[in-house]
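Lab notebook: predicted structure, single chain.

Context: the supervisor wants predicted structures on file for every construct in the current expression panel, including those that have not yet been purified. This is the next one on the list. No modifications to the sequence; it matches the entry in the shared construct table.
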Amino acid sequence: MDIYLPIANLSVNALVIIGLGGLVGLLSGMFGVGGGFLTTPLLIFYGIPPTVAAASASTQVTGASVSGVFAHLQRKGVDFHMGGVMVAGGVLGSLIGAGIFSLLQASGQIDTVILVLYVLMLGGVGGLMLKEALQAVGAVRRGTPVAAKKRRHHPLVAALPLRWRFYRSGLYISPLAPLILGVLTGILTMLLGVGGGFIMVPAMLYLLGMGTQVVVGTSLFQILFVTMAATMVHATTTKAVDIVLAALLLIGSVIGAQLGARLARRVKPEYLRLALAAVVLVVAFRLALGLGWRPDEIYTVIAE
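Prediction complete. Output recorded below exactly as produced.
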């Protein structure tokens, strides 16, 4: 069933796009990640222009984050004070990212930059995840569980001025730390279409020293508003958001997330992390291969 994407300016099989959204939703439900960092590469593999893929993926992440935020609100797992500071930084980062996006788009280098950033980001994150997962699997087989790391904020965070109390997180740190973290996430959201949860959660745990009971909910709260802001900025500046594409992805991701949550209950978490690391590294390798592999046709002529 072919459908025309007005912004991407091409026809796609709607069932394939829904299937891609379903696959990302399945991973989201199984591993507890937003999945935005896989949506854009999968769309690029299918032939969607990287600019449209990145802009439309942020729209999908916005919709997918809503249910997660409400679920954590019921468990009182959201630090609104901390989340508000991060949202402010994220909105500022979105505006900065929009300027960078426009400059790269004007120079004709935006597609290459998106691909290179994804290779570096997924390769680095996937490598760290693989190392941790292998240690966890080895410890389980030996019967010696890995000791949990202490949660405390980084010395650089402790050195920042103007400390505030974040009661829900149990922290007394400078608001500049979560503000800067929010800015960086906003820039990544604009350039890559990711929610940033796979970077935000470790940073909130190991840099800010937040408690595990509020990390995921606060991260989703920040992601919801920052991706919403990024979508609006994209729609008004870069004009790269394809709402038809985003809607098809959302349909698939909602269905996939339900299936993934059920599958996650039947598999040990150590093996889930190992599988996710493998998926991330495979995607990074495929993107790197696309950057270095010479295409059959170097030039393409389009008649207008």
